[in-house]
Protein backbone atom coordinates (compact mmCIF):
# COMPACT_ATOMS: atom_id res chain seq x y z
CA UNK A 1 0.00 0.00 0.00
CA UNK A 2 1.17 3.52 -0.83
CA UNK A 3 -0.03 7.08 -0.25
CA UNK A 4 0.64 8.74 -3.58
CA UNK A 5 3.24 11.09 -2.08
CA UNK A 6 6.31 10.81 -4.29
CA UNK A 7 9.56 10.54 -2.31
CA UNK A 8 12.04 11.11 -5.10
CA UNK A 9 12.61 11.05 -8.84
CA UNK A 10 14.56 8.09 -10.16
CA UNK A 11 16.08 7.40 -13.57
CA UNK A 12 15.88 4.34 -15.78
CA UNK A 13 19.41 2.97 -16.11
CA UNK A 14 18.66 -0.02 -18.31
CA UNK A 15 15.69 -1.88 -19.78
CA UNK A 16 16.38 -5.58 -20.38
CA UNK A 17 13.68 -6.98 -22.64
CA UNK A 18 12.39 -10.53 -22.53
CA UNK A 19 9.91 -12.07 -24.99
CA UNK A 20 6.92 -10.46 -23.22
CA UNK A 21 8.46 -8.90 -20.13
CA UNK A 22 11.18 -6.46 -19.07
CA UNK A 23 13.61 -6.05 -16.20
CA UNK A 24 14.16 -2.46 -15.12
CA UNK A 25 17.28 -1.11 -13.45
CA UNK A 26 16.48 2.18 -11.74
CA UNK A 27 18.85 4.67 -10.14
CA UNK A 28 17.63 6.04 -6.79
CA UNK A 29 18.84 7.01 -3.32
CA UNK A 30 16.16 7.90 -0.79
CA UNK A 31 13.91 4.89 -1.39
CA UNK A 32 16.93 2.59 -1.04
CA UNK A 33 18.04 3.73 2.43
CA UNK A 34 16.22 0.80 4.05
CA UNK A 35 15.39 -1.34 1.00
CA UNK A 36 15.59 -5.12 1.15
CA UNK A 37 15.07 -7.82 -1.44
CA UNK A 38 11.34 -8.42 -1.84
CA UNK A 39 10.32 -4.91 -0.78
CA UNK A 40 7.70 -3.05 -2.79
CA UNK A 41 8.40 0.27 -4.50
CA UNK A 42 5.85 2.23 -6.51
CA UNK A 43 7.47 3.06 -9.85
CA UNK A 44 5.40 5.80 -11.50
CA UNK A 45 2.41 4.34 -9.69
CA UNK A 46 3.12 0.67 -10.44
CA UNK A 47 3.87 -1.58 -7.48
CA UNK A 48 7.08 -3.46 -8.30
CA UNK A 49 9.24 -5.82 -6.23
CA UNK A 50 12.93 -5.22 -5.58
CA UNK A 51 14.81 -8.26 -6.91
CA UNK A 52 18.34 -6.80 -6.70
CA UNK A 53 19.68 -3.59 -5.22
CA UNK A 54 22.79 -1.60 -4.41
CA UNK A 55 23.32 1.75 -2.70
CA UNK A 56 22.17 3.75 -5.71
CA UNK A 57 20.13 1.34 -7.84
CA UNK A 58 17.58 -1.45 -7.81
CA UNK A 59 16.10 -3.82 -10.36
CA UNK A 60 12.53 -5.02 -10.74
CA UNK A 61 10.84 -7.50 -13.04
CA UNK A 62 7.79 -6.32 -14.99
CA UNK A 63 5.54 -9.17 -16.13
CA UNK A 64 3.44 -9.22 -19.33
CA UNK A 65 0.18 -8.38 -17.51
CA UNK A 66 1.74 -5.23 -16.08
CA UNK A 67 3.18 -4.16 -19.43
CA UNK A 68 -0.24 -4.61 -21.05
CA UNK A 69 -2.00 -2.39 -18.50
CA UNK A 70 0.56 0.36 -17.85
CA UNK A 71 2.80 2.86 -19.60
CA UNK A 72 5.96 1.04 -18.45
CA UNK A 73 6.25 -0.72 -21.80
CA UNK A 74 7.46 2.52 -23.37
CA UNK A 75 10.28 3.17 -20.91
CA UNK A 76 13.83 3.70 -22.13
CA UNK A 77 17.17 4.48 -20.51
CA UNK A 78 17.26 8.00 -19.12
CA UNK A 79 13.51 8.31 -18.48
CA UNK A 80 12.46 9.86 -15.16
CA UNK A 81 10.25 7.94 -12.71
CA UNK A 82 8.24 8.77 -9.59
CA UNK A 83 9.33 6.57 -6.67
CA UNK A 84 7.65 5.83 -3.34
CA UNK A 85 8.30 3.18 -0.72
CA UNK A 86 5.43 1.15 0.71
CA UNK A 87 3.52 2.66 3.62
CA UNK A 88 4.59 1.57 7.09
CA UNK A 89 2.14 1.05 9.94
CA UNK A 90 2.03 4.31 11.88
CA UNK A 91 3.01 6.55 8.96
CA UNK A 92 0.89 9.60 8.15
CA UNK A 93 -1.54 9.00 5.29
CA UNK A 94 -0.96 12.36 3.64
CA UNK A 95 -2.33 11.37 0.24
CA UNK A 96 -4.91 8.60 -0.15
CA UNK A 97 -4.92 4.79 -0.23
CA UNK A 98 -2.99 3.73 -3.35
CA UNK A 99 -2.50 0.04 -4.15
CA UNK A 100 -0.08 0.36 -7.04
CA UNK A 101 -2.44 -1.65 -9.26
CA UNK A 102 -3.07 0.41 -12.39
CA UNK A 103 -6.58 0.61 -13.86
CA UNK A 104 -5.54 1.97 -17.23
CA UNK A 105 -3.39 4.38 -19.20
CA UNK A 106 -4.54 7.94 -19.83
CA UNK A 107 -3.20 10.57 -22.22
CA UNK A 108 -2.34 14.15 -21.36
CA UNK A 109 -4.45 16.42 -23.56
CA UNK A 110 -3.35 19.88 -22.40
CA UNK A 111 -1.34 21.65 -19.70
CA UNK A 112 -2.20 25.25 -18.86
CA UNK A 113 -0.75 27.68 -16.33
CA UNK A 114 -3.33 29.24 -13.99
CA UNK A 115 -1.56 31.67 -11.65
CA UNK A 116 0.61 29.44 -9.44
CA UNK A 117 -1.06 26.20 -10.58
CA UNK A 118 -0.77 24.00 -13.65
CA UNK A 119 -4.07 22.57 -14.91
CA UNK A 120 -3.57 19.17 -16.54
CA UNK A 121 -6.35 17.69 -18.69
CA UNK A 122 -6.20 13.91 -19.16
CA UNK A 123 -8.25 11.64 -21.40
CA UNK A 124 -9.17 8.15 -20.23
CA UNK A 125 -11.33 5.27 -21.42
CA UNK A 126 -14.83 4.67 -20.04
CA UNK A 127 -13.85 1.76 -17.73
CA UNK A 128 -11.52 4.16 -15.87
CA UNK A 129 -13.73 7.27 -16.06
CA UNK A 130 -16.62 5.47 -14.36
CA UNK A 131 -14.72 5.46 -11.05
CA UNK A 132 -13.59 9.10 -11.18
CA UNK A 133 -15.66 11.66 -9.29
CA UNK A 134 -15.36 15.42 -8.95
CA UNK A 135 -13.18 16.36 -5.96
CA UNK A 136 -12.30 12.70 -5.52
CA UNK A 137 -8.81 11.23 -5.33
CA UNK A 138 -6.87 9.73 -8.22
CA UNK A 139 -3.28 8.53 -8.57
CA UNK A 140 -1.58 9.73 -11.76
CA UNK A 141 1.81 8.09 -12.30
CA UNK A 142 1.66 7.37 -8.57
CA UNK A 143 0.90 10.97 -7.55
CA UNK A 144 -2.08 11.49 -5.25
CA UNK A 145 -4.17 14.28 -6.78
CA UNK A 146 -7.68 15.71 -6.55
CA UNK A 147 -10.03 15.72 -9.52
CA UNK A 148 -11.05 19.29 -10.36
CA UNK A 149 -13.37 18.83 -13.35
CA UNK A 150 -14.55 15.89 -15.42
CA UNK A 151 -16.73 14.84 -18.34
CA UNK A 152 -17.45 11.39 -19.73
CA UNK A 153 -14.04 11.06 -21.37
CA UNK A 154 -11.61 13.48 -19.67
CA UNK A 155 -10.81 15.05 -16.31
CA UNK A 156 -8.51 17.73 -14.94
CA UNK A 157 -6.22 18.04 -11.93
CA UNK A 158 -4.39 21.07 -10.58
CA UNK A 159 -0.70 20.94 -9.67
CA UNK A 160 0.78 23.20 -7.04
CA UNK A 161 4.36 24.38 -7.77
CA UNK A 162 5.86 21.76 -5.42
CA UNK A 163 4.12 18.88 -7.21
CA UNK A 164 5.07 20.21 -10.64
CA UNK A 165 8.72 20.53 -9.57
CA UNK A 166 9.07 17.25 -7.67
CA UNK A 167 7.23 14.78 -9.92
CA UNK A 168 7.25 13.66 -13.54
CA UNK A 169 3.86 15.26 -14.19
CA UNK A 170 5.59 18.63 -14.24
CA UNK A 171 7.90 17.36 -16.99
CA UNK A 172 5.43 15.52 -19.20
CA UNK A 173 3.86 17.12 -22.25
CA UNK A 174 0.58 16.85 -24.13
CA UNK A 175 0.30 13.51 -25.91
CA UNK A 176 2.30 11.54 -23.34
CA UNK A 177 0.79 8.56 -21.47
CA UNK A 178 0.21 8.38 -17.71
CA UNK A 179 -0.67 5.51 -15.39
CA UNK A 180 -4.06 5.91 -13.72
CA UNK A 181 -5.33 4.29 -10.53
CA UNK A 182 -8.78 5.30 -9.33
CA UNK A 183 -9.85 5.34 -5.69
CA UNK A 184 -10.21 1.73 -4.58
CA UNK A 185 -13.07 2.60 -2.20
CA UNK A 186 -15.44 3.24 -5.10
CA UNK A 187 -14.71 -0.17 -6.60
CA UNK A 188 -15.48 -1.96 -3.34
CA UNK A 189 -18.70 0.01 -2.85
CA UNK A 190 -19.82 -0.93 -6.35
CA UNK A 191 -19.06 -4.59 -5.72
CA UNK A 192 -20.86 -4.64 -2.37
CA UNK A 193 -23.89 -2.89 -3.85
CA UNK A 194 -24.11 -5.63 -6.47
CA UNK A 195 -23.87 -3.24 -9.42
CA UNK A 196 -23.05 -4.59 -12.87
CA UNK A 197 -21.00 -3.00 -15.64
CA UNK A 198 -24.05 -0.98 -16.68
CA UNK A 199 -24.50 0.10 -13.03
CA UNK A 200 -27.82 -1.76 -12.87
CA UNK A 201 -28.38 -3.60 -9.57
CA UNK A 202 -27.46 -7.25 -9.76
CA UNK A 203 -29.59 -9.99 -8.23
CA UNK A 204 -27.24 -10.36 -5.28
CA UNK A 205 -25.24 -7.94 -3.20
CA UNK A 206 -25.72 -5.23 -0.60
CA UNK A 207 -29.19 -3.68 -0.94
CA UNK A 208 -31.41 -1.33 1.02
CA UNK A 209 -33.68 -4.23 1.95
CA UNK A 210 -30.70 -6.20 3.25
CA UNK A 211 -29.50 -3.27 5.38
CA UNK A 212 -32.99 -2.70 6.79
CA UNK A 213 -33.53 -6.41 7.48
CA UNK A 214 -30.31 -6.58 9.50
CA UNK A 215 -30.90 -3.40 11.46
CA UNK A 216 -28.40 -1.09 9.72
CA UNK A 217 -31.07 1.40 8.62
What does this structure look like?
14% of the residues lie in helices and 38% in strands. With 217 residues, the protein is mostly beta strands. The chain has a 6-stranded antiparallel β-barrel. The chain has a 6-stranded antiparallel barrel with strand order 7-8-11-10-9-12. A hairpin with a 3-residue loop joins strand 10 (143-150) and strand 11.
Strand order of the largest sheet: 1-2-5-4-3-6
Helix-strand category: mainly beta
Count of helices?
Answer: 5
**Approximate shape:** globular
Helix percentage: 10-25%
Order of helices and strands: EEEEEHEEEHEEEHEHH
Q: What about the largest sheet?
A: 6 strands, antiparallel, barrel
Multimer state: single chain
* Strand count: 12
Rounded Rg: 19 Å
Whole-number average pLDDT? Answer: 92
Amino acid sequence: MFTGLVEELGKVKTVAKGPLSIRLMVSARKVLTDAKLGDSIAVSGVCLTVVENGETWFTADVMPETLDRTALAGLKAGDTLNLERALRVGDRLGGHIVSGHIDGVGTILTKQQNDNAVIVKIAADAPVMRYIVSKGSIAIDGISLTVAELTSDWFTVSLIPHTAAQTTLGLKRAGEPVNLETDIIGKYVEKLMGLGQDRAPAKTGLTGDFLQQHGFI
